[in-house]
Amino acid sequence: MTGSTGSTGSTGSTDSADATGTTSSPGTAPTEPAVRPVTPLTEPRDGVPDVLVTEAELAAYAAALAAGTGPVAVDAERASGFRYGQRAYLVQVRREGAGTALIDPVELPDLSSLTRATAGVEWVLHAASQDLACLAEVGFVPDLLFDTELAGRLLGRDRVGLAAMVEAELGLSLAKEHSAADWSTRPLPESWLRYAALDVEVLVELRDALEADLVRQGKLEWARQEFEAVRLAPPPPPRVEPWRRTSGLTSVRDVRRLAVVRELWQQRDDVARDRDISPGRVLPDRAIVAAATALPRSADALGALPEFSGKGTRRRLGIWWSAVARALALPENELPSRRGPAADVPSHRAWRDRYPEAAERLRAVRARMREIAEEVGTPQENLLTPDLQRRLAWEAGEVTPRDAITTGVVATWLTTHGARPWQAEVCAAGLAAALRDPASVADPDGEQRAADPA
Prior knowledge:
With 454 residues, the protein is an alpha/beta fold. Helix content is 45%, strand content 8%. Residues 1-47 are annotated as: Disordered.
């Protein structure tokens, strides 16, 4: 932890009064919306529009969109679990005065005209971080953002799925039966298109209800900073050794068997990319782990495993055996390590035994964050990510004497490491006190104890 100053931009000043003049200090505890009768939302008010597939249709809608008023509701449908990547297979847009458009980005891969049509206009999305990347791939990017899911989290809502929030905030029931469908299907069924149109039907109304509560709780500025951070977030860096995320890998102990997992995972990824199929549909993780566990010495032995008995798996048995054979032939110095690449901060699961002082700091940080979360009515992970909490607890050990861990030092460390200014303002003082004297911080049950795994 050092004393350099860092901050991120915000998008406006804090609003502290609602329409009735009621004021709230930042972090007022939440109140759930009043229970109201629920009305099924079964049909878009303008009917289900035809899917736009031509440049002329797109240009006409872009002109209507530019002439519309108010925020723009946006959504995208992908084919997760069916296709290799996360590209969009349908884009939904709605704005007052322009109506709803369903756009096929396979036929229309350049939607930059819609970006120009919405320049300076706020977009409303639900769980925006899931859709912004695939929208950017087709040239559709926002200047301003309101994320209804993230707003719900900041407000302390227990359920933040779109259907649950629409019901709680607006008294409307929204069906979600096609959320996990294969949206690369062509032609798209009418019932799917209806579902897609309804996803943006009341997003702006939901946004307005949530904004009013953000004002009441004194959290509108928090939300603005969070929305801007999501909008400007860079793509995540490629994972180091992504094969280590194979389900069931913890049962694979020795390095030769880990090499089998690595080679099969990479071979599967190559096949999946070439065929544009989700890797799990090409070869399940359980088959990879079964091959590594059995360590077969021939293609026949590999094919005898129950996990390799399916038609598709057997059809590519030669490919899978070649991957296993490569792993068996690797010299010792090319085998993967048991633990994987070293991290700059050791795994917190080892702190209790190897770094007890760091474990105690982490326990105190988590306990203090739970206190703050309860006080302001926002989940702990939205106040400060678990990774940032661990890093803070670890690096605080480098500061001596402990009295040097001041509110200003912690606030600077937080913003330098990616926290938003509001997060530093809310958390820094409590965290600084906890790090100066971890033993003074009791867990919610009143006990001080070593940190347990997250």
